[in-house]
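User: what does the whole thing look like in 3D?
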Amino acid sequence: MYEITHDTIDAAEVASKVNLPNHGASLAFIGTTREMTYGQRTVLLEYEAYIPMALKTMETIGEELDNQWPGTLCAITHRLGKVAIAEASVVIAVSSPHRAHCYEASRYAIERLKQIVPIWKKEIWEDGSEWKGSQTGPWNPLQTPQFE
Amino acid sequence: MYEITHDTIDAAEVASKVNLPNHGASLAFIGTTREMTYGQRTVLLEYEAYIPMALKTMETIGEELDNQWPGTLCAITHRLGKVAIAEASVVIAVSSPHRAHCYEASRYAIERLKQIVPIWKKEIWEDGSEWKGSQTGPWNPLQTPQFE
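Assistant: Here's the predicted 3D structure for the full assembly of 296 residues, as structure tokens:
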């Protein structure tokens, strides 16, 4: 259910992992490389991970979802290496019997991923680049997830 | 961006319609036929629509999203006819520059669809069947969408 890959992510394939007869709702969150961020043009993003811990923390997220929203199912695939504009860096698929839990659990999963999964990204602009501690920017392990 | 079909829905194809360079987040909501509902086993669902008005109200939802969350993009495909267990009856794809709006807009879109789009479903069980006014069950046009 948890994968890290250097290949293009097939969102439908990730979503299919959580397709269960009793789950009437599923949500696929797709995080893609955005061209403009506060007026700065990104050319591409490059991701690195400490893979064993990244997989382990993704599993932790799945366990947390199951604790908070029993019966939800979660699959996560994160891409590493260079990710071009509009390509997916992460796909999180969540399913549950009813949609309310599905939305809550999906939102939690992406915020939690950015908080605890050791994946770093390098933003590459036309005129430079910078490594960031997590996909959300300046990384602070004490910071709680921002849900706004 | 708005489609009604008797064929299987390709969720990835719907999601691809909202993939824009400046949109860093997209969400595909997939509503599927659930086998068990409050202890009753569904065999399949059958959908009917008043198609011109269904397409028009789907467009209205897109306009409402753009008003409330400017810059969000929305595509909706709804299936008609018989939909087997675990198959998708509706896919709603929403994208936006940042993910907070994406989640809010996606949630709004599915609730609003069940409220204003004239699509009826017949629940077919092992021992009978029943037409329902909307996918959520007893239909009341005065009822506001339930977001819980």
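In plain terms: Helices of chain B lie at 11-16, 51-68, 99-116. Chain B is about 30% helix and 40% strand.
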